[in-house]
Design a protein that fits this description.
Oligomer: heterodimer
Shape of chain B: flat
Order of helices and strands of chain A: HHHHEEEEHHEEEEHHHHH
Radius of gyration of chain A: 28 Å
Order of helices and strands of chain B: HHHHHHHHHHHHHHHHHHH
Largest sheet of chain B: none
CATH class of one domain in chain A: Mainly Alpha
Number of helices of chain A: 11
Structural class of chain A: alpha+beta
Shape of chain A: globular
Mean pLDDT of chain A: 85
Largest interface: A-B, 62 and 65 residues
CATH superfamily of one domain in chain A: MetI-like
Strand content of chain B: under 5%
Distance between the termini of chain B: 47 Å
CATH topology of one domain in chain A: MetI-like fold
Number of helices of chain B: 19
CATH class of one domain in chain B: Mainly Alpha
Chain lengths: 401, 461
Amino acid sequence: MTTISDEPSSKVSFWYDPKVRSIISQLILVGLIAWGLYALVTNTIHNLERLNIASGFKFLSTEAGFTLIQSWIPYDKSATYLRAFMVGLINTFYVAIVGIFLATILGFLVGIARLSKSWIISRVATVYVEVLRNIPLLLQIIIWYKILLLLSPDKRGSISILGIGEMNVTGLWTSKFIAHDGFWVTGIAIGIALVLAWKVSRWAHKRQDATGQQFPSFWAGLGIVIGLPLLVFFATGSPGVIESPEFVSEGPMLRRGFKTGVGFVFIPEFLALLFALVLYTATFIAEIVRAGILAVDHGQTEAAGALGLRRGTILRQVVIPQAMRVIIPPLTSQYLNLTKNSSLAMAIGYPDVMGAGGIVLNQSGQAVEMIIMIMVVYLTFSLVTSVFMNWYNAKMSMVER
Amino acid sequence: MATIKDHARHYVRTEMLPEQAPPAGEVGMRKWLWDNVFSSMTNFSTIGAAISSILMIVLTLAVIALFWWVIVVLYKFGWQDAIWSGTDGSFCRPEDNKGKVPIGTDIGACWPFITNRIGQFMNGFYPEAERWRIYLTYIIGAPLIAGLLMPSVPRKGLNAILLFVAFPIVATILLSGGGIEIAGSTWIFWAVVFAICLAVLFGIQMATGAKGLLMSGGKVVLMAAIAIFAILFALSFDFGLPFVETSKWGGLMLTLVIGLTGIVVSLPLGIVLALGRRSQMPAVRLASTIFIEVWRGVPLITVLFMSSVMLPLFFAEGVSFDKLIRALIVVALFSSAYMAEVVRGGLQAIPKGQYEGSQALGLSYWQTTFLITMPQALKLVIPGIVNTFIGLFKDTTLVSIIGLYDFLGILDSALQDTNWLAPTNQMTGFLFMAVVYWVFCFSMSRYSMYTENRLHTGHKR
């Protein structure tokens, strides 16, 4: 724009040289940002001094002095703030992993149901999606929590939830498996079985590619994964027991109810959060799945049909593998959303990283440090997600012709 | 020829037979039901087909049963057992709890709890005598928004300026009462900023001899100065309206204030950030990318927490904002990061020929951006913008966690009223909130779908 001729033109003024302009404006921007950060940091340090708050992460080794209603690692009042934070971190992982697993299943089912030829099923799926995704998640979490507490019997009673366990306001109590010495052999067997199943499926694929002969690799794999560990488990003398929750229905009133520490309990906060997260995120996943399936050219389905494949086979072997390329990037960001949304848990008192971190923040008064720690946790999640997405996109674009 | 005609006369009919009715299974309800409901569950020709038919039957019945159960529960709670009138909580309490509902009767939704305090749900603790100001704001804002959303209404540019610049100022004055004390230092600060700008322009002109720089640059600076001082003056002018502090704002009005502030700030800021992320200048690109990714990487609740505990520490001693303004700042920054990605998507969809063409015509970067590419990109991403707004609108509920009385938060304070203690109040409130949020979000999502369809002409299968 500035010069057309090749020779450096001296007529163009210094100010109109795009390079100079770009450098100047970048310098101004960097200067402004640096000035802003400097002001922020000095103000903060000054304010902290004024309020007599010591900065630094030393407070993390202080005794916490509060209890948390759910923890996967040993934790009590005398544990440190850092441990409380770790408990919260693990609880976030816990609800996120279970939530992602269930939301994916439900989302795929609903997404496929929306495309069903059956009017009833597709309409009900549509109504479900349109209703639940247009109601704020926070409201849904609170509603589920209240409904759960309203419907469950009190501490001294219980109702049985078919096939899962028994429930009252203290939570949903189910059996738990307790491993004894020697269970590690079974653990190794599980690993071997997984590798073996994977090998079988690889071999079956190769053979089918070469000879066209099919092999029921799914059933064979399932058999290996279930059968081998079971066999090893019994061969090593059944090192482990299943512990059922104990419900005390006799004796003094105050002693009645579930015995703490026996069996496994899903606390109502967790259940409500999980319900809401799964039902809400599944609506978005359903839309992604639907869009992904619709993005596969109809000719693919027709061609597969012309080759004589069944409807189910067409869906499994032709449509979904192609749709996955469209589905996976937005799906990953939904997983990230679910993880971030799990921070709403603090509204109902589930001790996730935000909830536990919030208590630590309030007790210790170390706002800056705690907020930074919480943010770093979530930023790490999103960084890992975006690294995965970049890797996936690169892999997929190589496959493309 | 003639012979063929004569021959044909013997077997070609001269008039049409009357149309026969199609077979009963091929029309109307029966055909529709057969095609859309039963076709997937009546194939028993092979074992596989039979299994899938049976599965379909079971699934359909289960789905119908579940759906029906939900409908019945909602109908029973919200209509059949609901209590429709009353002047205090006793109308919704059973008799054994000093109420007026006979023992043994199911108590459904307590609607008078909602209708009696609908004003509070809508306007929070805003003084009743001053509520006309809120309604006036709605009356001014609604046609502006409607005008911008309806494709057939002309003068979109003027409309946008009115909605994004004039309306926020008018709304601020109306809602807060205006007459905001603006410190002398603020006036001086802006005066100094503009003076420095002019001085820099003048200096460059002197140093490099770039003619007309002071004239053209000065015009922009002068216009900005007039705008800023006009806004400062308008905000500080006393219109005689009583001041209503933001702690009294609440209900749906607060939700709308947060949502609209978010969109009004995030759209321009998002455009700037999107341009920054696509910029050729590495420092600009890096700064924009970091800003966008950090805000998008953390949940809103953490930044809201930051606004309530960390933001006060960031400012110099003596500078303090109230809770609402702090929340507004972070909500606006948060949504700008999302908006930036939406706008960037639109810019990426503009064919390269548009850039090249405008460069060939000799347009500058800013002319290319604001006359050629940005208008097209923004038009493309209207659905995305609306979807971001839906997300923002749903996310406004989070401010109730940091103690603001938005539409969801106001329910908590309403439940504290001892005159209105009743067992089903909370659920009634939840049902009401859910319906209101749903109506807002659903209609917005329909609008977004409508624009999407309008823009995708001729690509449908």
